[in-house]
Amino acid sequence: MPQQATTGLPAYQALADHHLQARTWQMRDLFSAPGNRFAAFSVEAAGLLLDYSKNRIDATTMRLLAQLLREAGVEARRDAMFGGQRINDTEQRAVLHTALRAPRGRPLVVDGQDVNAEVHAVLDRVCAFAGRVRSGNWTGRSGKPVTDIVNIGIGGSDLGPEMVCKALRGFADPRLRLHFVANVDGHDLDAVLSRLQADSTLFVIASKTFTTRETMMNAQSARAWFLRQGGREDELARHFVAVSTNSAAVRAFGIDTDNMFPFWDWVGGRYSVWSAIGLPVALAVGPERFREFLAGAHAMDEHFRSTPLERNMPAILAALGIWYRNFFGSASLSIAPYHQDLSQFAAYLQQLEMESNGKRVRADGSDVDLATCPVVWGDVGTNGQHAYFQLLHQGTDLIPVDFIAALRPSHALPGHHEALLANCFAQAEAFMLGKTAEEVREEMRAQNLPEDRIAALLPHRTFPGNRPSNMILMDALTPASLGALIALYEHKVFVQGVAWGVNSFDQWGVELGKVLASTLEREIGGEPRPQAHDASTSALIERARQALRT
Ligand code: F6P
């Protein structure tokens, strides 16, 4: 059955009309109007506070946006996802990352299997293994405990565990050093291996498919390195474990399937940090903290599943994104975590959002009728303030910002956290307020600048303001609050995917480059070139062949 076009929904039309007025609103005026905007436009769930009052919205905007989500079928689709239906249409798969963090004893039968029981059986194995490594009970070939863990994986098999390990480094066992190798560029693996002792190193080969070229090449090179360092084939099992859905390929690689931690095809790569792909997290922070991380995400799942869209944090975040993307034409979204330990969070969200919703056809194969996922980017505050915030304040594009901060630090350095939070809140306030020409003129007159100088500087020193932002606050960055934060964005992405009519759970767009690269790799390696390329690609191949031959 053809899908209903999003722009044809009654609420979409109503929003388009409403936008004709809303686009002229000034947030300064909205804040001066009677009533408490913070109370009206903030929501708390799973230990997170979302203050969305600094947006170009009023109560009607939010009512219409919730109506749009309802008309697009978000609630039914949400229930279908939690219920284990095959909502990933193109791959004919269920989408059950939420089941990975559901408490034990909540049966969910999919294809005749109790997913909950399977999930907890693997989770128990992951936790037991992490416990053995952390206690020194799991030893390497010469009886030494593990000191270094190298996760070899890419995309979802890298970004999630790496981001979370960085974010929770305050909870990590300092005796274990975690390394992440993703890139097929040998400089990545080489830099890590050069610092390691084979006898005390554990490699985690993480790949859902166990066919990804980058990961397989890095894994083979790591294996060869281990053997060159004096390791024997029959000792590989103590130094290599795998996380995968493909036991045949794991066996073929030479890893004992007793040391393989499985997951399932209903876990998308970018949604897999909750599965055995999170093994490096369990190794770093320990089984208990890993379970707290899962519990934090589950708390957000419960909120998302049971709260009306009007008070539903992921739905609100999604709705605001749609408001700016589709009605104001914002082509990008900036993520500004004011927490150094969230330094990888924007990179993680890039895959989550852009691989999920960077699509131009709907589930029924027809073209979408509106813009979909914006470009997602960002860096930690305050660093970004001294790099690209200029453009956010005074550039020509309207770029919404998500600020993320923890009220309490996990260090004891006096004054730093006050300064950090002051900057975070100040930026959000500055985006909203801006600085009018009148205010700038007064300021310069107070500095006794001559009138001709004031006139020349005035346009440069004026800030348009009226730039929207969200503020996501947590008490402290803990396993539970991080779990909730990631789940918040996962569900936001889900809601937007439904509203835009795309399948958020496939990623066909990455295939073409993979296929072309495998041909080119052979050609650069010296194989005759059976295939004609365009003039540019042929010349580049020739350059590479010559350089690598000499
Ligand atoms: O880049 C495409 C992709 O399939 C991602 O979705 C995935 O996270 C990544 O490659 C790695 O895949 P795998 O875990 O199968 O190695």
TrEMBL record:
Keywords of the record: Cytoplasm, Gluconeogenesis, Glycolysis, Isomerase
The record ties this protein, via PROSITE patterns, to: P_GLUCOSE_ISOMERASE_1, P_GLUCOSE_ISOMERASE_2, P_GLUCOSE_ISOMERASE_3
* Family annotation (InterPro entries): G6P_Isomerase, G6P_Isomerase_C, Phosphoglucose_isomerase_CS, SIS_dom_sf, SIS_PGI_1, SIS_PGI_2
Task: Provide a Gene Ontology MF annotation, just one.
Answer: isomerase activity
Hey, which pathway is this one from? Carbohydrate degradation; glycolysis; D-glyceraldehyde 3-phosphate and glycerone phosphate from D-glucose: step 2/4; Carbohydrate biosynthesis; gluconeogenesis
Top-level lineage group: Bacteria
Transmembrane helix as a keyword? no
Which Pfam family, an example, fits this chain?
PGI
Q: Keyword Disulfide bond, does the record have it? A: no
Entry annotation: catalytic residues: 355, 386, 514
Catalysed reactions, semicolon-separated: alpha-D-glucose 6-phosphate = beta-D-fructose 6-phosphate
Chief location bin: cytoplasm
List the EC numbers from the record: 5.3.1.9
Query: What are the subcellular locations of this protein?
Result: Cytoplasm
- Can you tell me which family this protein belongs to? Belongs to the GPI family.
Entry function: Catalyzes the reversible isomerization of glucose-6-phosphate to fructose-6-phosphate.
Official protein name in the record: Glucose-6-phosphate isomerase
**Species in which this protein is naturally found:** Noviherbaspirillum aridicola
